[in-house]
Task: inverse folding
């Protein structure tokens, strides 16, 4: 059990923890934007310094992209080891004008801290550091051996982490992995996540004439790339909301009736969800309830589209080219490589005469399921009860964390705890992203309790 003095120490330092979070959030560590490469590096340095202050032996590992921060603090070889993973990079903040206060000027309103990265993932990641700080202040020693891995490329699909894990397999060896990069089932209803969807993210480009043409002089002679692209995109899904790519569902594992019953019992407040999303109706596959559709069924969505003229007024052209970004969320036992191939050949089969199509893979990750029936899960549930004063429900999440599959495959570790301290309405990836300061505090308490629970 986590000693009471440690929980008291966490409480006593609440203000300072928030100040530190605010400092962390000021860095515009947007990994996808090369103009922020220096900011990303400074953020890594901030994390490194924080770990050094906690007595960790640290190292900044260069990769082909953004650096990886690694540190360890060993208490006693006879004790177990916990590896904590988080990411210090963030999504781009745009649309800027929809932020009530600027994304990199953290602001507190009504018990929430607002900033890009507040929940995803700086705030949640920091809970472990603050928990360790409190433990060290009171006891001078951690109850388990701890390794920390914080990367700067999660939001771009962790392209350099696979080779990194393979190279440092021994250094990263661990009994349990904890990741807080998701959310509770609902605010005030903590959860342990045992499943993540995978992701295939592709770009489709359609090229027609060599340059934009006068639509009067040449209309009637050439295929229009925007129209071709729209028709292709429209054919990716059937009217019933299912994906039309041949073979897409071939490897989808059928949900067990017991799991479906469990999901149906989760009190998803659909009315509140519709209000939050600003939509009148939720839509998706007819044979599945919302919770299944958002976590345990695969999907396809167009994330962006471009081409032609969209400025003020009218310009009479036939565009030379058009493009779209398409993301597909995968579930067990779909594999990214197979789905990419099916997508590619379907797009080529839909390509009419008169244009060329190009499909490129941007990034991806495979879906994962984690065994719920293991000691680490029971320890995590008990830790959440300490932090949140409620026992957790078990959920799958619809998002993806690329490293989780790699942890299983490369490190051979199956004790992966996905413990989201955030809330589904924190606005991750959206304008006005936030993190509840109470959840921050509860996360710190839970993280401390987890470390004591794992001590053996
Ligand atoms: N924190 C999310 C993952 C997540 C989202 C977990 C929702 C649970 C619920 C993470 O930072 C993220 O956004 N991942 C990307 C991965 C992608 C870039 C490979 C995602 O899911 O889009
Ligand atoms: Zn994210």
Result:
């Amino acid at each position: 059990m986590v000693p009471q003095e440690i929980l008291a120490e966490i409480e006593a330092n609440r203000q300072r923890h928030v100040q530190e979070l605010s400092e962390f959030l000021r860095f515009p560590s947007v990994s996808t934007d090369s103009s922020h490469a220096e900011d990303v590096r400074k953020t890594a340095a901030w994390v490194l310094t924080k770990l050094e202050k906690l007595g960790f032996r640290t190292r900044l590992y260069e990769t082909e992209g953004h650096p990886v921060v690694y540190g360890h603090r060993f208490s006693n070889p006879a004790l177990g080891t916990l590896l904590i993973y988080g990411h210090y990079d963030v999504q781009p903040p745009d649309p800027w004008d929809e932020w009530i206060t600027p994304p990199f000027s953290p602001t507190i309103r009504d018990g929430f801290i607002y900033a890009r990265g507040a929940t995803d993932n700086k705030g949640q990641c920091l809970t472990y550091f603050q928990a360790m700080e409190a433990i060290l202040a009171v006891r001078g020693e951690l109850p388990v051996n701890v390794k920390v891995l914080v990367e700067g490329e999660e939001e771009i699909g962790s392209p350099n982490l696979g080779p990194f894990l393979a190279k440092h397999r021994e250094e990263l060896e661990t009994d349990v992995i904890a990741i807080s990069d998701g959310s509770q089932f609902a605010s005030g209803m903590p959860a342990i996540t045992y499943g993540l969807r995978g992701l295939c993210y592709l770009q489709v480009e359609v090229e027609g004439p060599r340059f934009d043409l006068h639509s009067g002089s040449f209309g009637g002679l050439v295929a229009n790339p925007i129209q071709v692209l729209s028709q292709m995109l429209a054919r990716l899904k059937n009217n019933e909301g299912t994906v039309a790519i041949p073979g897409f569902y071939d490897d989808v594992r059928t949900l067990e009736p017991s799991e479906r019953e469990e999901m149906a019992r989760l009190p998803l407040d659909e009315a509140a969800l519709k209000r939050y999303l600003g939509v009148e109706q939720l839509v998706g596959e007819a044979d599945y309830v919302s919770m299944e559709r958002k976590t345990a069924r695969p999907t396809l969505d167009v994330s962006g589209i471009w081409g032609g003229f969209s400025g003020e007024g009218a310009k009479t052209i036939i565009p030379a080219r058009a493009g779209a970004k398409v993301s597909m969320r995968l579930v067990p036992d779909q594999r990214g490589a197979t789905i990419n191939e099916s997508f590619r050949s379907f797009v080529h089969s839909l390509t009419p005469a008169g244009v060329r199509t190009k499909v490129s893979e941007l990034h991806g990750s495979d879906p994962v399921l984690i065994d719920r029936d293991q000691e680490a899960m029971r320890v995590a549930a008990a830790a959440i009860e300490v932090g949140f004063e409620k026992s957790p429900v078990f959920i799958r999440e619809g998002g993806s964390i690329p490293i989780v599959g790699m942890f299983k495959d490369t490190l051979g570790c199956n004790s992966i705890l996905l413990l989201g301290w955030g809330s589904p309405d924190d606005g991750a990836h959206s304008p006005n992203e936030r993190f509840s300061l109470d959840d921050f505090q509860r996360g710190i308490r839970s993280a401390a309790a987890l470390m004591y629970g794992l001590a053996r």
User: Anything to note?
Assistant: Residues 91, 120, 155, 428-429 surround zinc ion (ligand 2) (CB under 6 Å).
